[in-house]
């Protein structure tokens, strides 16, 4: 009788181990299947723009543009920074100038859909910071996008990110952001890189485009 019970306990223990291993393997396989695939990254060359500081406030009105179109004419991405005006002593209490600019980005595809659009601000130099203005009444405009992250500033120690997902797997999206670049030291040079990051799904693969634009301001 004792041997019979021992054999049954051994059999139950083996079955338990087998079931545990099968369940563990199934869960591992499910996590692998559910993990989003790593996108193919298309990195464009950096587009650069620069100016020299002026003694008086003046309007600039220049466009700095980066464009991407795939070889099959199925994906189009356009990133434009509209440099507005240079404002001398705009923050008179600290003697800081300001350069304001708009970021306009759009993406379109006729195969699949757009997954996300992100705007990434690099760290600035030690003597400036950038404030994207989170004001939906006027300064932020979006089409077919749900913005789920909107950082308040980019500094010499912190990057800044604006992240949005498309609504209902749209094949077109557009985003416009107003930004204030505060320049705190007259004799210093300043720089910031703004990178548009767009992810597509073309029914087969995920594709991410990276489009950096660098702005520089130099002393007189």
Protein topology:
Blueprint: H1 2-34, E1 40-43, E2 47-52, E3 58-69, E4 75-91, E5 96-109, E6 113-121, E7 128-132, E8 141-143, E9 145-150, E10 160-166, E11 172-183, E12 190-201, E13 206-218
Parallel strand pairs: 1-13, 2-13
Antiparallel strand pairs: 3-4, 4-5, 5-11, 6-10, 6-12, 7-11, 8-11, 9-10, 12-13
Distance between the termini: 99 Å
**Helix content range of the residues, please?**
10-25%
Work out the number of β strands.
13
Q: Under CATH, the topology of the largest domain is which? A: Immunoglobulin-like
Identify the CATH architecture of the largest domain. Sandwich
β-strand amount: over 45%
How would you describe this structure to a colleague?
The radius of gyration is 26 Å and the shape is elongated. The N and C termini lie far apart (99 Å). It contains 1 helix and 13 strands, in the order αβββββββββββββ. It folds into 2 domains: 1-35; 40-218, Immunoglobulin-like (Sandwich), CATH 2.60.40. By secondary structure, it is α+β, with helices and mostly antiparallel strands. A hairpin with a 5-residue loop joins strand 3 (58-69) and strand 4 (75-91). Helix content is 15%, strand content 55%.
Structure, briefly:
This protein is α+β, with helices and mostly antiparallel strands and 220 residues long. The chain contains 1 helix and 13 strands; from the N terminus they run αβββββββββββββ.
Task: Note the main attributes of this structure.
7-stranded mixed β-sheet, 1 helix, 220 residues, 15% helix, Immunoglobulin-like, alpha+beta, 2 domains
């Amino acid at each position: 009788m004792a041997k019979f019970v021992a054999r049954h306990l051994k059999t139950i223990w083996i079955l338990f181990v087998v079931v545990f291993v099968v369940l563990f393997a199934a869960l591992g396989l499910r996590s692998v299947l559910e993990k989003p695939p790593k996108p193919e990254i298309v990195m464009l060359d950096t587009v650069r723009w620069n100016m020299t500081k002026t003694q008086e406030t003046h309007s600039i009105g220049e466009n700095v543009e980066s464009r991407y179109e795939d070889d099959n004419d199925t994906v189009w991405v356009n990133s434009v920074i509209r440099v507005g005006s240079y404002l001398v002593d705009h923050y008179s209490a600290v003697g800081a100038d300001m350069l304001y600019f708009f970021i306009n980005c759009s993406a379109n595809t006729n195969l699949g859909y757009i997954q996300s659009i992100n705007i990434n601000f690099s760290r600035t130099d030690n003597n400036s910071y950038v404030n994207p203005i989170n004001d939906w009444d006027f300064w932020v405009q979006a089409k077919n996008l749900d913005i789920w992250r909107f950082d308040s500033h980019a500094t010499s120690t912190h990057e800044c990110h604006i992240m949005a997902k498309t609504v209902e797997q749209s094949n077109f999206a557009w985003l416009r952001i107003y930004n204030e670049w505060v320049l705190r030291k007259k004799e210093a040079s300043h720089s910031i890189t703004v990178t548009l990051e767009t992810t597509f799904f073309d029914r087969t693969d995920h594709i991410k485009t990276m489009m950096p634009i660098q702005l520089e301001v130099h002393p007189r």
